[in-house]
Amino acid sequence: MSGRDSGRQPKYQRIAAELRAAIEAGEYGPGERLPGENDLMATHEVARMTARQALGVLQAEGIVEARKGAGVFVRDFKPVRRLGIERLAHGQWGEGRSVWETDVAGRSLVVDSVAVSEEEATAVAAGVLGLAEGERVCVRRRRYTLDGKPVLLSTSHLSAGLVVGTPITQPDTGPGGVYARLEELGRGPVRFREEIRSRMPGADEADRLELPPGVPVVLVARTAFDADGVAVEVNEMVLDSSAYVLEYGFDA
Amino acid sequence: MSGRDSGRQPKYQRIAAELRAAIEAGEYGPGERLPGENDLMATHEVARMTARQALGVLQAEGIVEARKGAGVFVRDFKPVRRLGIERLAHGQWGEGRSVWETDVAGRSLVVDSVAVSEEEATAVAAGVLGLAEGERVCVRRRRYTLDGKPVLLSTSHLSAGLVVGTPITQPDTGPGGVYARLEELGRGPVRFREEIRSRMPGADEADRLELPPGVPVVLVARTAFDADGVAVEVNEMVLDSSAYVLEYGFDA
DNA sequence: TAGTGGTCTAGACCACATT
DNA sequence: ATGTGGTCTAGACCACTAC
Q1: Average model confidence (pLDDT) for chain A?
Q2: pLDDT tens for residues A128-180?
Q3: Interface list for A 6-45 with B (CB within 8 A)
Q4: Could you report the per-residue pLDDT of A94-128, keeping only the tens digit for each?
Q5: If you count Cβ atoms within 10 Å of the first and of the last residue's Cβ in chain B, which end, N or C, has fewer?
Q6: Chain-chain contact of B250 with A88 (C-beta, under 8 angstroms)
C-alpha cells in the first residue's frame, strides 16, 4: 500500500464509508448519480479495482445500483406495497400510523405466469400436508408482477387426491380462487399460519425476480388449515424484499 | 478474454455456478472446505482476481464463508430458533408440522446490553405515537444474545410523559417488563401490529450483530396499542436473518 | 463517439491461521 | 514456516449508454 495508513482500515472501506455518509447526509438523493470508478480513481488516487471494490460495498448493502454504461446511482427505495393477510382475514388492522410508508394505491399486482402440474410430494410438502412419502400433489406455480416488475414467486402444494377433477388443477381456478374451491369441497381453510425467513437469493431467484445485487428475498410459507385442523395447502412464496412490507396484527 | 467462449457468460460466473452445483449435490457438506483461490487459479487457469470474484458470488449469496488464513467453507445454515409472538398472545399456534425446522429447545436468549435514555422523538416515533415534533420520548435500546452470538437489536420508544417516574425509565423494568408496567399505568397493550421488511445490513448493524457477508437483516417494527386504540410503544427490531424464523397465525 | 461499468490479467505485499 | 484469504496496483479489452 502506498502512502500513510490513515486510520487502520482498507482504502476501499474508507472510500465506501465516505460515500455512504454523503448519501445519508443527502448530498446524493435517490436516483442521483454518484462519483463513478474514474472519478474515485482520480480523487482518491487509487487503482480501478480499488474504486470498484468501494462501490461494490455499497452495492452489496443495496443502497446503490450500477447501470452499465451510465453510472452508479443511489437506489430509490420505494417499499411499494404491502402484502397483508387483509384479504384472508377480516381487514380491521389499519389502526394508527405505520412505521414504514407504502404506496398503497392503484398499483396493479397481476399474475404473470401460471403453471399447474401433478408431482411427487417433496419431503417438506408431504410432511406438512400429512402425506406419505412419494404421494402425489397438485403444484401450482405462479409469478406476480407489480407494474411490470416481477415481485413474487408462489409455489402452492395441495394433495392431488383432494383436488383431482376440480378447477384447482386448472390454471384458472375461477372466482374466489383456490380457497373458494376448497370451501366447495367442504375443506375451506379457517386458519392460517405463516412462517417467515429471509436470505440472499440464489442465481435462479435473482433471475426470475430481476433482482439487482444487494437485495435479499423474503420467504413466506403459508399453511392453510381446515375446520378439523388438517393442513390443506402449503404455499411457499419468494418475495422481492424491496417491494414488500409485510403486516400482521393480533390481540394480546 | 483468452481461449474460447464456453457459453456466453463470464468465467467467474461459470466457476461460481460449478461450485454452487457441487455444493448442492453434496460434494461439499456444511462446514467443509472448498477449493480456494489458488486451487481455482490452477484448475481453471484464471487470474487470482477472477477466482476471488467467483468465490465472492457464493459469499454474497450467503452459502459460503471465507476465513482468513484458513480457507473457504460451506456455511452451516442452522435457522436456530424462532421468534414468536407466543409470549404476547395466547400461544395456540402450533398446529401441524412446520415448514422450516428450528432448534426449539434449551438455547438461552439473554439481554446482552441495555441502555435507556430520554431523547427527542424521531419523526417516525413521533408520528406513530401521535406526539408533536420534537417531543421527548423514553428510548430503550437492547441487544439480545443467543448462546453468545448477538442476534437482535431492539430500540423501543415510549412517550416520556407517560413513563416518567416509572421503572420503565430504568434498565431493569421488573417482572413482566415494560408491558406489565404499562398495565399498572392503566395503559396496558391489548393489540399489536407488526410490520416486517428485509434488507442488507449497514456497516454498523453488521458489526453489532457480527454478521458475515451475505446475511441480510429482518426489520420488525412492533406497535402496541392500548384499550383506546392509542399507540403506547413502538419497537424497532433488527434481527439476524440466519437466526430467526418468524411465525404468525390468524383465523380466516 | 466518448464515457461508463464489467471482465480479466499478472504480478505484489500483508495479516492471519494452521502446522 | 507454509499456505490462506485480503488488499492493491497498472495496465487491458469489451459492451453498453448517452450524446
Answers
A1: 87
A2: 999 998 899 999 999 998 878 899 999 999 999 999 999 999 999 988 889 98
A3: 17, 20
A4: 455 666 766 555 567 788 899 999 999 999 999 99
A5: N
A6: yes
Query: Does B11-74 match B109-240 in CATH topology?
Result: no
B188, B190, B199: residue with CB nearest A251: B190
Contacts of A246 in chain B (CB under 8 A): 195-197
C-alpha closest to that of B233 among B225, B241, B245: B225
Predicted local confidence at residue A101, as pLDDT: 66
Chain A segment 77-106 residues within 8 A of B by beta carbon are: 79, 82, 85, 88-89, 93, 95-100
Mention the CATH class of domain A11-74. Answer: mainly alpha
Other C-beta atoms lying within 10 Å of the C-beta of residue A60: 20
C-alpha–C-alpha distance, residues A139 and A160, integer Å: 9
Digitized pLDDT (tens) for each residue of chain B, 252 residues in all: 333 344 568 999 999 999 999 999 999 999 999 999 999 999 999 999 999 999 999 999 999 999 999 999 999 877 665 555 444 443 433 455 666 766 555 566 788 899 999 999 999 999 999 999 889 999 999 998 887 889 999 999 999 999 999 999 999 998 888 999 999 999 999 988 889 999 999 999 999 999 999 999 999 999 999 999 999 999 999 999 998 888 888 787
The backbone region for B79, taken as left when phi is positive above 0, alpha when psi lies in -120 to 50, beta otherwise, is alpha
Q: For residue B23, what are the contacts with CB-CB under 8 A and spacing of at least 6? A: B34, B58, B63, B64, B74
Nearest CB to A198; choose among B188, B198, B249: B198
Rounded to the nearest angstrom, the minimum Cα separation between A4 and chain B is 24
**pLDDT at residue B236, as a whole number:** 96
Q: What are B65's three cell numbers?
A: 464463508
Q: Do B241 and A198 touch (CB under 8 A)?
A: yes
B185 interface with A at CB cutoff 8 Å: no
AA letter at B138: C
Q: What whole-number distance in Å separates Cα of residue B30 and Cα of residue A104? A: 42
What is the Cβ-side half-sphere exposure of residue B156, based on CA atoms within 13 angstroms?
A: 20
| Nucleic strand C near CB of residue A38 (< 7 Å) | yes
- The residue behind cell 420467504 is A219
Q: Is B73 on the interface with A (CB under 8 A)?
A: no
Degrees to nearest 5, angle at CA A16 with B156 and B113: 25
Classify the C-alpha dihedral B64-B51-B11-A73 as positive or negative: positive
Report yes or no: A252 at the B interface, CB cutoff 8 Å.
Answer: yes
Tell me the CATH number for domain B109-240: 3.40.1410.10
Residue matched to cell numbers 432448534: B103
Half-sphere exposure of B115 (CA within 13 A, CB side): 7
